[in-house]
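Build the 3D complex.
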Amino acid sequence: MQKNNTKIRALTGGYAVAEAWRQIQPDVMAVYPITPQTTIIETYAKMKADGLVATEIVQVESEHSAMSATIGACAAGARAVTASSSQGILYMAETLPVVSGLGLPIVMSVSSRALSAPLNIHGEHGDVMAVRDLGWVQIFAEQVQDAYDDTIIALKLAEEINAPVMPIMDGFHTSHTTERIEILDDEVVKKFVGERKVQQSLTDFENPTTFGTLALQNTFFEFKIDQEKVMQKAKAAYKKICGEFFKISGRKYEMFETYHLEDATSVIVIMGATGGTAKDVVDKLRQQGKKVGLLSVKLFRPFPYEEIGQALSHISRIAVLDRAISFGAYPPLYQDIVSSLYHSSSRKPDLASYIYGLGGRDTMQKDIEKVFQDLEDGEIDNKVKYLV
Amino acid sequence: MNKDLTKKFSSGHATCAGCGIPAIVRTVLGATDKPVIVSNATGCLEVTTTIYPATSWKVPYIHSVFGNAAATAAGIDAAQKALEKSGKLKNPAKIIAFGGDGGTYDIGLQALSGALERGHDFLYVCYDNEGYMNTGGQRSGATPYGANTETAPVGSQSFGKTQQRKDMMEIVKAHGIKYLAQANVAYLPDLKRKAQKALNTPGPSFLLVLQPCTQIWKFPTSEYVNIGKLATETNFWPLFEISAQGGSALGGEDYKYEINHIPKQIKPIEEFLKTQGRFKHLFKEKNLEVIKEIQKTVDENFEKLAKRAQIS
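Done.
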């Protein structure tokens, strides 16, 4: 393990992500401001103003152009990144499947936030859930340390599989919260991410490539099947890169984290910042002798159905907590957990669905305790409940 | 086909018979010996030249979506600058964005405006066929007053489009770029000279090129050059250029307007209108006033342009 020059800092999630970008030094960053992503891009702009980074920063006039310029830069052979939130992600949504369709290794740092109307600038996962089917890898951070580490892992993953990656932190709860984190040595990060190996580029004038063709009924379908194959490869690549990252950092990431799952009877499945609160509750209830546990999903797309199904196969009561609403349907994480269990286990656990934290609503320990209490009391049915 | 013409853009593309877009593309691409990278908006040019697994493009080419040709070009510009700085790119390309009028006047206007304002080093070429022709002929911000389109159709209560075209040249000029010109596919030597000038201008430059559409304007496929000429000979589409005589890297000032072709005798607008099915209804008794209105606008616009050309 190589941890010689690790620095301990107290940083917000936004700053930590900018710090990871400083160490990576992408060639191009095209960005448009939106709360709560601004802490990333303002910090990075200051780093540029102070001569700490050489990145060409393009201050575009919209998120649509932010992703469009990032596409142009990446296709031209540059290491190109962006960052966004909420309305911004939906404004650029038209271009997101273009990135994955062209196989461009773009990383977009996301501070997730609610969608209007009514207007709300605070954290939830509604924005990233709205774009979850567009061929982007999605990785959720629980805390500031993850937000920093995920950025480095995401870049390497994107360039290994030639697909775009969205490392996601909860807006405000992580992006604006100061926590103790360990920063790797600049040289260690530089060596870890290496140089981008460009396969086809607009700046290869000897071998001109046409990017973004028109594919008709006879070929389009195969393009989409190929894209799905890339997504399936992403799981193994993520595991491999997390293994390599462990060697330089001592921090171990997996597709999902389990916490006191082995002998648990009641389990909460969650994703993102509130996983931390839930762990504290598990600790507290365990002290009272209760057999509770937690599964926190890190890799949301591609979703590790089989692995999660296996991990939950012995649990009899499960509550899935979603920080997003899917109008007229069960919430997104819940749907994926149902699919995981259906295909991986012949047992049918009691399953409950909860929605929490919309529009930045605080989720307190007592709310999580209430969920565990419901599970214990057998207050489980097929209705979606709200932790309001 | 002439090997020189197909050096960067091959034959065998799928544009309609009698379409001038390939002539515009070849003329612009032929105006430089440097490498070029093309960014293309969704539209006629894109769908007819990139049908997988074939491509007509012998130069690096990217199509992303409808409204982002200029933003994509901006990203390529940033990438070239970064790669040059890090020593990975020795001979950067000229970046040329192509869009139709829909992708330029309408859905791509914001991206174009941003890219012009930021001063990226690229040439934006709008081939203006005055409507959404790739989707079957709907009205755009470039469709002329009185034209019959699928979404502003002629009926007992309608003579077609009731609004004037946007003044795209003045909109672009207002960004303070150093060179922009209005051209016409029927005058290729003029277009070539303007493309050369644009490509030699540092920062952004803009060409607005009239492209008569045989399908939607409704005229015989042999006629696009003749109809293009009539557009200029009636002053409906004057050939002119605007160049900054002063300014800095941040933008131009002291603009000079030059009209590049003064017809010996200016023809009445009817000469242009009567050649096309999209204006056929205007020649009915009840619509003759519309023709008068069009003539009036053509005269006023040309007068404005002539004044600007003289003043400067």
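Chain A has a mean pLDDT of 97.
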